[in-house]
User: What shape does this take?
Amino acid sequence: METDPERTGPSFGRRIQQLRRDKKLTQREVAGRLKIDFTYLSKLENDRGDPPGEETILGLADILETDSEELLALAGKVPAELRKRALEDRDFAMLLRKLPALSDPELKRLYKSAGVKPPRS
Assistant: This one.
């Protein structure tokens, strides 16, 4: 997984590394609790490979005592409810497809109306 130079804030891997270090936990400790190999956790922290599945991310959030929604978003995970709505609502699906083309001011207005704190510029 490559890091997007325009992304604000840490990547998924750097964020979990930061949280793990803040908790003074080793990779082996976290990996053991998640029942994954510590070398896999090392790859995740160094943004090598694809992000893990939702269950692993939720486990990480629990162990690291952090917001699971933040980690899921950083990993680029799309909630099942969003996929379901897009399948059932053509207009909603079209909106999702148009989002990447919106200008920064348009996105900021959308963030505000959705109650989402916009990224720092």
Q: What stands out?
A: DSSP finds eight helices and no strands in the chain. The chain has two domains: 12-74, 82-114.
